[in-house]
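User: For a benchmark we're assembling, each entry needs the component sequences followed by a predicted structure for the full assembly. Here are entry 17's components. Please fill in the structure.
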Amino acid sequence: MSQRPKILITNDDGISAPGIIFLSKVASAFGDIIVVAPDKPQSGMGHAITINSTIRIQKTNYHQSKIEYSCSGTPVDCVKMAVNHILDQKPDLILSGINHGSNSSINVIYSGTMSAAIEGALEGTPSIGFSLCDYSLEADFSQAEQLINQIISNALTHKMPNGICLNVNIPNINSSQLKGIKVVRQTKGNWVERFEERQDPYGRNYYWLTGEFVNFETDAVDTDEWALSNGFISIVPTQADLTAHQTIKQLKYFEV
Amino acid sequence: MSQRPKILITNDDGISAPGIIFLSKVASAFGDIIVVAPDKPQSGMGHAITINSTIRIQKTNYHQSKIEYSCSGTPVDCVKMAVNHILDQKPDLILSGINHGSNSSINVIYSGTMSAAIEGALEGTPSIGFSLCDYSLEADFSQAEQLINQIISNALTHKMPNGICLNVNIPNINSSQLKGIKVVRQTKGNWVERFEERQDPYGRNYYWLTGEFVNFETDAVDTDEWALSNGFISIVPTQADLTAHQTIKQLKYFEV
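Assistant: Structure for entry 17:
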């Protein structure tokens, strides 16, 4: 490649979160980076976009990049804003994260990090969402640096299938314990929720959404949950077609 | 069935929108309805959940239902709150909508209406999201009443595949022009966005997200876009597995 690749970077924890600072540093070895990321935490925003209110952007200086904006919108807004408004040409690669916390299994549909990557793939650009299975703000992202380098390098070298992005989850273990990388499928699972009820100082109830993840297929060995609990980084090729193709014939009784 | 079915109703346009008022009226002929819906418009919220702030609920009286709450959260929060906190037992059916505007093709991933239905399916309950391809608040939902009745009746009579919900879109035409119902797949398509730039009274720029939908497969005859533009209600069986299964083998070069 005669020119250095253009790499767009975003996340859902906000433009100054340690995970995106680490990712932009790693990515800058591979190309010219552009950062457009939320101006505040946007975890759990899924594929939300801002259509009922306005969006603002602001030049910032958290990263070693020539083009850098914080954006008042969601992670998906950030990708749309970067690709359709800020940049003159499409980026060669879009990276999202590194998320503070797992986006394996069903978490993918709630994840702002992964929705940004899915949006990138929809825009026709190879995209990768990275997540570390550690919710702590002091998480150590460097443990998997070598394998993250390898994934970015592979994504720039090989042509990815069109419309597909990668959901990369990194187990929270030391580099010496990391066994490698597995390309796997999304585990079937769900959250069992509990709404924690509290009272405000004025006697009115309010709630915090909490819950426990339940793995529906603990015996499967081709899933992201299996890979993560066995010391591997998991990569799930991810796309935006939600059709349950195998059930179309079965549901023909709805036709008239 | 000895008891009347329990039907949970939600939407993303807000608990008092004409679409949900119409849907709860139609559904009440089939069972006892419970309404838990957003206290304000939540269009474009996708699968967002509220984890960085608190959630409140409030008893309301917009519908002919014994149990009815508005909720400060997203459509997905509404389903989680209803199923895990408000109700003693799982509902028999979850209905979301009727949305003011299309949720066909790629719109499904941005749609709060459909995310509520997907969440219902994840909770193990047969779920349907309804959308009318008319963004007007004065939209006429009654044109398709007979076919909506038929879909609800079918969903209560037949056992739906587990984890699947239905994405039902209704074309904006008179009942005399409606040709029937087709069970189809999600059309490949995308939005080409434009950010409309304006200035606030203080000289600072802000943006509105606008755009045009582009159908990537105008020749296909087994898609929701085809059904809608040919006078049919489209039903797409929809699920939350985002894995691009067909590409897993192809991407094994990422493994180490």
